[in-house]
């Protein structure tokens, strides 16, 4: 199974900050890496697919990069509505696996 | 718009069975693979099962293999998850999610349903 490791597991940041979340795969997954945002009590919502493609309707302050084993999700200027948990997920092999999540909290 | 609505969650005793449904609308259901993903209370996301657009291929997480069965009725635009021999560790919110394509490789989940809570407890 491919293990997905996210870091940090949580972070505190202020509105306007630049935030970077890292996801590392235990083996190469090419660019088959997706990012989801989840708010409390809600279903996850797709942000980024195929490592760097922005899902329609998602604000341009979100961006993704990386390939192989190392990936990043960047929020260029954190907004109040961005406080949530972020999950990465690989679609290179079965079983499909997620990172442990990164909770972004208000400083 | 694309909509997925899960139902069937509830409280069940260990060793019991439960069947979940996911009603799909707003897209051509017969063209897309579908998934079940779960989230235990306060925990991360765990992929559970996948079924190809035509039902010809299915995959399961090791944690549910042999106990859970994913199926679909394309005439009813509905996805199912039959859960048998339930354990306490199966307690979670279960989400259905549409695959971005007909298979799973290189794809993503979009959108997700609102989820249905399954609690396994005596």
Spatial shape of chain A: globular
N/C terminus separation of chain B: 40 Å
What kind of assembly state do the chains in view correspond to?
heterodimer
Report the sheet-strand fraction of chain A.
Answer: over 45%
Find the count of extended strands of chain A (DSSP E, 2+ residues): 11
> What is the radius of gyration of chain A computed over CA atoms, rounded to a whole number of angstroms?
13 Å
Quote the distance from N terminus to C terminus of chain A: 36 Å
Query: What structural class results from the helix and strand content of chain B?
Result: mainly beta
Which band does the percent of strand residues of chain B land in? over 45%
What does this structure look like?
The complex is a heterodimer of chains A (107) and B (122). With 107 residues, chain A is mostly beta strands. In chain A, 0% of the residues lie in helices and 50% in strands. Chain A is built from no helices and 11 strands. In chain A, strand 7 and strand 8 (70-75) form a beta hairpin. Chain A is globular, with a radius of gyration of 13 Å. The model of chain A has no long low-confidence stretch (mean pLDDT 97). Chain B has 122 residues and is mainly β. In chain B, 0% of the residues lie in helices and 50% in strands. Chain B is built from no helices and 11 strands. Chain B has strands at residues 3-7, 10-12, 18-25, 34-39, 45-51, 58-60, 68-73, 78-83, 92-99, 109-112, 116-120. In chain B, strands 2, 4, 5, 6, 9, 10 and 11 form a 7-stranded mixed β-sheet that branches. A 4-stranded antiparallel β-sheet of chain B has the order 1-3-8-7, with no helix packed on it. The termini of chain B are far apart. Classes of the chains: A mainly beta (107), B mainly beta (122). The interface between A and B is medium-sized, with 24 and 23 residues.
